[in-house]
Amino acid sequence: MVMTGAERVKKHYDANRESTLAKRRAKYHAKKISKVEPIYELNLANGELPPDDTELPNTSELIPIELIEVEPVEPVEPVEPIEEDLIDPTNVLEIVTKNINSLDETDGTKKLRISNMKSIITILNPVNYKEFIKALKCRPSQTIKLIKSYQYTPNKTYAPNTLISLYKTVLFYFDKFNMNVKPTNKEKYKDAIELYDAIAVVELKEKNQTTIPTFDKYLQRVLNEYGIYSREHIIVKMFQQVKCRDDLKLIVANVSSQLDKNINYLVVGEIFKVVLHDYKTIDRYGVVNVELDIELTNLLSHYIKTHNIQVGDCLFNSNNISKIISMVNQKLGYVGHGAINLIRKMLSTDATSLPLEEQLKVSKQLCHSLKTTNLNYVVKE
Q1: 314, 248 in Cβ contact below 8 A?
Q2: 7 with 14: CB under 8 angstroms?
Q3: Could you give the CA distance from residue 225 to residue 221 in angstroms, rounded to a whole number?
Q4: pLDDT band at 192 (very low <50, low <70, confident <90, very high)
Q5: pLDDT tens column, 264-304
Q6: Hey, how many other C-beta atoms are within 10 angstroms of the C-beta on 226?
Q7: CA–CA separation, 145 vs 183, rounded Å?
């Protein structure tokens, strides 16, 4: 939750107590040395004398005032309430994460929004939260351009769909936290979204005119290249049965394990099963629970024993299954369709030979609509 003004002032005071007290002492010292003993002037013409108890200075001990050097004292600026981000310029992502996590959304949705904001923060490299919000609100054209041209790896910029997701996250943040952005500035983000949406459609049509293999042919090539008990072959077999996105970052559990609702699992037993709690469209399709066939169960059992994997371990010792599949695709010469996206396209394209009811079943297993399947995943020969 966002801190109140009083809480921020207290936090700033606690963090800067010593420097604040030092400034106050300096100010007090400056006032103190400016005070001098009262000087009584002799006015003999009027017959006035100083008080009897006043000892007049010996004139031989007096120093001309212009020769007295007084050390200057720096003025003490008043202490103003400071936003917590100005105290620690590195906590921009922390503030954004705290705000997003305060929303009533699924953990998967929050995770995606935080990931997008993390990318934007990396690109803009703001010194503090205030400057970050100012860049988003007041310099939309510059922000859009920086995000568009950013190279996340050498010579690699974001794809149109990724740009759309980033710009939508900015608009979401504006609206959800009442940023009071000028309509003309918000319109620039909306225009960018519309532009890259059109570009994405064109690129997708071009990609989907190229030939891809059937899934069975692809699987056979993976088997020939890597071997039956290889990690690569087992992962591809799992995608054939689970039909998920990049969601096979699985923790091994057994039938008696207490499953965390934010983690994806391989549950081992007589028949193994995959349980997905965290994936893109869980709000619509719910928890995915897929029993694996006996062949894949045996392959996984052999893999777990060979690699001494225990309950609680990560199955494939990787948080980036997409990278593994990308390397497989490149080695086999399948480029231009992404990593896991190629698998989803093969499964979707193969299903077009089935009756519509079966096509709908495959689409639900892929966790998106039949319309999305036909528009985005079916590759025409």
Answers
A1: no
A2: no
A3: 6
A4: very high
A5: 999 999 999 999 888 877 777 788 888 999 999 999 999 99
A6: 17
A7: 19
